[in-house]
Design goal:
There is one protein chain. The protein is an alpha/beta fold. It contains 6 helices and 5 strands, in the order βαβαβαβαβαα. A 5-stranded parallel beta sheet has the order 2-1-3-5-4, sandwiched between helices. Helix 4 links the parallel strand 4 and strand 5. The N and C termini lie far apart (30 Å).
Length: 142
């Protein structure tokens, strides 16, 4: 599975840690910010487009708190990104909401928790079914 990652200045060090972690686990990592993006909007939108155009299957974005990246990427039509700070949410947002990416705040989450969040996020597939009804309703809002 190819995972797109990107970060602004505040999330860059944590992105580098998680990138190595993913590579060590055998994931194909597409780093969209070899140097920090100037702003979380740039890095999160880059991840959104990489996932939506099929360049990567999933995405992980990093900034100071995660909220900015989640909000910016969710403005891209068809994108579903969740800001996560604990493992259960990382797991459930994928299974129930079809999250295509997660946003992690380096000012809130340390390296070990970030690794656990990524593991939880990547360990599950979207369940579809009744959950798809919600996603279809959201798509109609645009």
């Amino acid at each position: 599975m190819k995972i797109a990652v990107a970060a602004d200045k505040a999330g860059f060090d944590l992105k580098e840690t998680v990138k190595k972690y993913l590579e060590d686990k055998g994931y194909d990592v597409l780093d969209l910010t070899e140097t920090p993006a100037d702003d979380f909007v740039d890095s999160s939108v880059a991840v959104a487009h990489a996932v939506l155009d099929g360049t990567a299957q999933r995405g992980v974005m990093f900034d100071e708190y995660g909220t900015g990246s989640a909000m910016a990427s969710n403005k891209v039509h068809g994108m579903v990104t969740a800001n996560v700070t604990e493992e259960n949410t990382a797991h459930m947002t994928t299974q129930h909401n079809g999250a295509k990416a997660i946003a992690i705040g380096a000012g809130i989450v340390g390296p070990r928790l970030a690794e656990a969040l990524v593991d939880s996020y990547l360990s599950v597939e979207y369940a579809g079914g009744r959950h798809q009804i919600r996603l279809d309703m959201l798509e109609k809002l645009y």
